[in-house]
Amino acid sequence: MKKSSLFSLPYIVWSFIFVVIPMLLVIVFAFTTTDGQFTIENISQVSTYTPVFVRSIWLAFLSTVICLILGYPMAFIMSRALPYNRRTLVMLIMLPMWINFLLRTFAWMTLLENNGVINSLITMLGFKPLRMINTQGAVILGMVYNYLPFMIMPLYSVMTKIDNSVIEAAQDLGASSINTFVRVIIPLSLPGITTGITMVFIPAISTFIISRMLGGGSNMLIGDLIDTKFLGNAYNPNLGSAISLVLMVFVLLFMSVLNQFDTSEEKEGMVI
Questions:
Q1: Is the Cβ–Cβ distance between 142 and 105 less than 8 Å?
Q2: 262 with 187: CB under 8 angstroms?
Q3: Cα dist. 155→72, 187, 204, 251 in Å?
Q4: Which CA distances in Å does 112 have to 28, 216, 264?
Q5: How many CA atoms lie within 13 A of 48 on its CB side?
Q6: For 207-251, what is each residue's pLDDT tens digit?
Q7: Of 243, 194, 158, nearest in space to 68 by CA
Q8: 215: nearest Cα among 118, 117, 160, 139
């Protein structure tokens, strides 16, 4: 056995135990009854939760778009900064990630609740308090806050590889700032865009802590639904596995579409 194969053996064993076997169990549970009999009833019942799937996809899409709009200029500014300032900005972006995910989300609950910090300040200014907690807007805010670094860092890592001479060459050839941005910077940063979209959209569509803490019971997402089927009062692991399987297939399709888009852009770049 080669040394490289020997070194990869622990990873293969780990992946088999904690990835392959759980996925196989999900598939088995999705197509069986509580008695172990084969059935497709669990898959057919998933359609009854279409509103939950639509809501999850929509909120994850909005959160991803907002993260891209906020993260792209921030990543570009970081990539063009001086080395010392660049390291400082990276540290500031990663600093919130050092705090526990639940604590960060709980902090937003304290800020957004009806008698929270923000409404207290609004009331002191003489305005009526706003209803911010237990809304879809609060869920989107929580997603954007928690997943924005996952958009910024891939973009930043790609943009740092864009040489300033390429941008200067485009400007010397008469390209305006907008044309340089659209025809040079965006195509060269496309791998970071696709990676950032993947790293934000996938956890956003499957989250359940954010929607539970900031959205309340009226904003159930797929993650909440799966959690109730495995751990909640509506215990039904077979149906929960079917929902998980459908979500997994959707995520794989989403990733394959992004991968095809990225590949086609690379081919166009090679032709050019």
A1: yes
A2: no
A3: 7, 12, 18, 21
A4: 42, 12, 43
A5: 9
A6: 988 998 998 877 889 999 999 999 888 899 999 999 999 999 999
A7: 194
A8: 139
Q: CA 52, CA 37: separation in Å to the nearest integer?
A: 28
Name every residue whose Cβ is closer than 8 Å to that of residue 102 and which is 6 or more positions away in sequence: 209
Q: How many CA atoms lie within 13 A of 113 on its CB side?
A: 10
> Token pair of 7, please?
């070194």
Nearest to 247 by CA among 217, 227, 272, 265: 227
C-alpha–C-alpha distance, residues 86 and 190, integer Å: 21
Beta-ladder partners of 32: 38
Q: Which range among 39-48, 88-97, 185-194, 211-220 shows the weakest confidence by mean pLDDT?
A: 211-220
pLDDT at 145 over 90: yes
Tokens found for residue 2 = 């080669």
Cβ–Cβ contacts within 10 Å for residue 148, how many?
A: 21
User: What's the whole-number average pLDDT of the chain?
Assistant: 90
User: Which amino acid, residue 9?
Assistant: L
106-132 core/surface letters (b: 16 or more CB in 10 A; e: else): eebeebbbeebeebeeeeeeeeeeeeb
Tens-place pLDDT, residues 98-123: 988 989 999 999 999 988 899 999 99
- For residue 249, count CB atoms less than 10 angstroms from its CB and return exposed for 0-12, middle for 13-18, buried for 19 or more: exposed
